[in-house]
Amino acid sequence: MKENTVLKEVLEWIYCIIIAVVLALCIRYFVGTPTIVKQPSMYPTLVQDERLWLNRWGRTTKQMPERGDIITFEAPSANFLSEEDIEKNGPVAIYTNEPTNFFSKFIYNVLEIGKTSYIKRVVALPGEHVEIKEGKVFINGEELEENYLQDGVVTDISKGVLSDFTVPENYIFAIGDNRSQSTDCRAFGCIPLEKVESTVAFRFWPLNKFGHVD
User: Fold this and answer.
1) What is the CA radius of gyration of the chain?
2) Are 188 and 160 in contact (CB under 8 A)?
3) Number of structural domains found in the chain
4) Is residue 172 helix, strand or coil?
5) Where are the alpha helices (DSSP H) in 40-182?
6) By three-state DSSP, how is residue 5 classified?
7) Which listed residue, 5, 57, 88, 117, has the most CB atoms within 10 A of its CB?
8) Is residue 18 part of a domain?
């Protein structure tokens, strides 16, 4: 009788742990998750080792990011487009290392094991014409106001090949604020909306910078 009681308690604990793990994974994938800034590409807006809370509800509801949003997205398979790639597929990022079965998709997309993500700022939306010239970004012929950049920052194509193009439907164009230290859509092409993982909701560490990130 006592052994049955112990077994029942053990099974109840196992069930509770399984439910807790499933709930945690669902919240992380569908709602939001914390992350750590690991690269300098968004400096000075974001500094390495800062902690952020990412909002993933937009991905769940298939909501279009807005211009100026800081987003995370799955890193493309190739960091640089060639002229041949652009002629063949347009100014879009290349993704070739897609998982093929349910288990590998779960490991890669939900547990995010072996997955690399980038964090950049959205500067152009589907259907918009982008020009990078004179050290600045122009959207549909008008200079983009980028008050979040440090004084003297120049936007050029030294980090890529895209300078005059139209963002395809269901894609966005994103660049790092630290333009000279960011490998971004200028190099690897526009990101498909399905690869956008989250938007930055707020910074929670360090505490003296707690709050919304512009």
Assistant:
1) 21
2) yes
3) 1
4) strand
5) 57-60, 83-89, 102-105
6) helix
7) 117
8) yes
Q: Are 70 and 46 contacting, i.e. CB atoms less than 8 angstroms apart?
A: yes
CA distance 51 to 47: 9
| The pLDDT value given to residue 100 | 87
Report d(CA 28, CA 17) in Å as an integer. Answer: 16
In the prediction, which pLDDT does 98 show?
A: 85
Q: Give the pTM.
A: 0.92
Tokens 């660049």 locate to 175
Tens digit of pLDDT for each residue in 43-53?
A: 999 999 999 99
Element (H, E) at 24: helix 2-26
Task: Find the domain containing 30 and state its range.
Answer: 2-207
Q: State residue 3's pLDDT score.
A: 67
The two three-digit tokens of residue 204, written as one number: 């929670």
Structure tokens at 15: 């069930």
| Distances, alpha carbon 183 to alpha carbons 8, 89, 103, 125, 161, in Å | 55, 20, 31, 19, 11
Domain for residue 212, yes or no? no
CATH label of the domain that carries residue 34: 2.10.109.10
Those residues with Cβ within 8 angstroms of residue 144's Cβ, 6 or more apart along the chain or in another chain:
123, 136, 137, 138
Quote the pLDDT of residue 107: 92
- The region of weakest confidence among 4-8, 51-55, 202-206 is 4-8
